[in-house]
Design a protein that fits this description.
Immunoglobulin-like; binds 2-acetamido-2-deoxy-beta-D-glucopyranose; binds copper (II) ion; Phytocyanin domain-containing protein
Length: about 160
Amino acid sequence: MASRLCFNIGFLIVASVGLLHGAYAANTYTVGGDLGWIVPPNSSYYEEWTSQSTFQIGDSFVFNWTTGTHTATEVSTKEEYDNCTKMGIILKDAGVKVTFNANGTHYFLCSEGTHCEQGQKMIIKIGDGIPPSFAAPSLTAAAALSALFFSTLAIFFLN
Ligand SMILES: *[C@@H]1O[C@H](CO)[C@@H](O)[C@H](O)[C@H]1NC(C)=O
Ligand SMILES: *[C@@H]1O[C@H](CO)[C@@H](O)[C@H](O)[C@H]1NC(C)=O
Ligand SMILES: *[C@@H]1O[C@H](CO)[C@@H](O)[C@H](O)[C@H]1NC(C)=O
Ligand SMILES: *[C@@H]1O[C@H](CO)[C@@H](O)[C@H](O)[C@H]1NC(C)=O
Ligand SMILES: [Cu+2]
């Protein structure tokens, strides 16, 4: 009896997450493809990589690096991005996964050394790139469910 209840609750959670994600037809991208998130061979590498896809609400990005020290740092403005300003939300764990639950434009760079100046920077545009003017409560609930599901690998930006 007890185990059956457990199973039903577990199924409900998995089904809910599936529905929420399914509604957005979400994809998971490995940033930079096979190269991952490192100092690229040329300064337009990540711009070329992002231009290959149109990103939507619910999409996730895995920042993958294995050797050396990098960060995935999100800065707030285009000016900070252009300047390689090395302050913002700094994610240091290799393999970190970021999921976006709203349209918006996000500026990422590596805050180590001169990596950003060498082109380790990327603009991710979700949908039309325009953030909502207020936070939608239902998306917050979806993020909470997803957070349970992906545990520590997922970092959510709800701006
Ligand atoms: C940048 O490097 C990538 C991978 O080597 C290459 O495909 C692309 O053509 C290069 N772009 C420029 C502008 O050199
Ligand atoms: C991350 O990089 C490592 C080493 O380059 C590679 O083996 C692994 O498949 C990559 N992971 C993803 C999700 O691409
Ligand atoms: C960007 O750099 C310019 C020139 O160094 C500086 O005047 C400006 O304040 C910087 N802006 C930001 C947001 O860091
Ligand atoms: C997000 O952007 C897309 C365009 O890519 C648009 O169709 C959609 O209405 C936008 N969603 C919100 C909630 O503004
Ligand atoms: Cu770096």
